[in-house]
Amino acid sequence: MPFPQERPRRLRRTPILRNLVRETSLATSDLIWPLFVVPGSNVKTPIASLAGQYHLSADKLVDEVKTARDLGVMAVIIFGLPEAKDEVGSQAYAPNGVVQQALEKLKAEAPGVVLMTDVCLCEYTSHGHCGLLKGEEVDNDATLDLLARQAVSHARAGADVVAPSDMMDGRVARIREALDEDGFSHVAIMSYAAKYASAFYGPFREAAQSAPAFGDRRGYQMDPANAREALREVRLDVEEGADIVMVKPAMAYMDVIRRVRDRVDLPLAAYNVSGEYAMIKAAAERGWIDEKAIVLELLTGIKRAGADLILTYFAPAVARWLREAQA
């Protein structure tokens, strides 16, 4: 009915009314916290490009995960910085690699937390690309077995979920096959199904020391102009056995999140990436924006677009803010 009979403002008058009819809710259980583990002990070094985030040795990583768990953040994803890099990224799948050691320690000392791991070679190769090279091209098929070895090594060390982020064709099927063959049919795969060649990754590449030594990753990561292609990538990963699919980045790709949500009934993750985080932190530090209000609005928007899970460096802060709102 037209005004004055129709008055949408009636249900906006008070906080209780607004909460009662709210369509989208953000919860601590939606959050996955990305963390960076490094060799050594008693290491907690600030990451310059990611204010409030750190390079952590395994012992300090356990402390951080326990603190987050106490706030209700029950899932983390681990990225590793090895002691040494080589052409084939051998530390990625070494039994005593930095991520493998961290997983064993977390499993023993921080029970109850879902342990996810990044599966990719870029942090471990001397050239910084996500797979084996043939000349200056990444050799897709030759890379698959190494990704599978990495995923299995993570499962052996205690990973609950492995997350291939390399964007090699066929890697989900190869990883699923390798996990099943090694007795890890219970370990889930969260595929970076629609991962774009984005300018928003800059701070992460500094944090993970994973910038390519030459060229770029546009030959295997997606063109930011394409949305229909994302549906194809997601469909292929679902057919290959992915348990969770992801869109990365999130903020500039909410239309893609919505398209994927409308087509797929698997859990859908979105990565609120380093550049998105860094921009908000920088503006907040200058007093230009209200960090808490902006972050909660952004993450709610990502959920509204269709994401079930959100990988975000803001996870512990959001958990505190949500707890305070319920107090």
Quaternary organization: single chain
Show unreliable segments.
none
Shape: globular
Give the count of structural domains. Answer: 1
The strand count comes to 12
- Could you give a short account of the major beta sheet? 8 strands, parallel, barrel
Distance between the termini: 39 Å
Fold and architecture overview:
This protein has eleven helices and twelve strands. By secondary structure, it is of the alpha/beta class. It has a single domain (25-326), classed as Aldolase class I (TIM Barrel). It has an eight-stranded parallel beta barrel, surrounded by eight helices. The chain has a two-stranded antiparallel sheet with strand order 6-7. Helix 8 links the parallel strand 10 (244-248) and strand 11. The longest helix is centred in the middle third of the chain and has 18 residues, at 140-157. The radius of gyration is 20 Å and the shape is globular.
Can you describe this structure in just a few lines?
The protein has 327 residues and is of the alpha/beta class. The chain has eleven helices and twelve strands.
Name the features.
327 residues; alpha/beta; TIM Barrel; eight-stranded parallel beta barrel; two-stranded antiparallel ribbon; 12 strands; globular
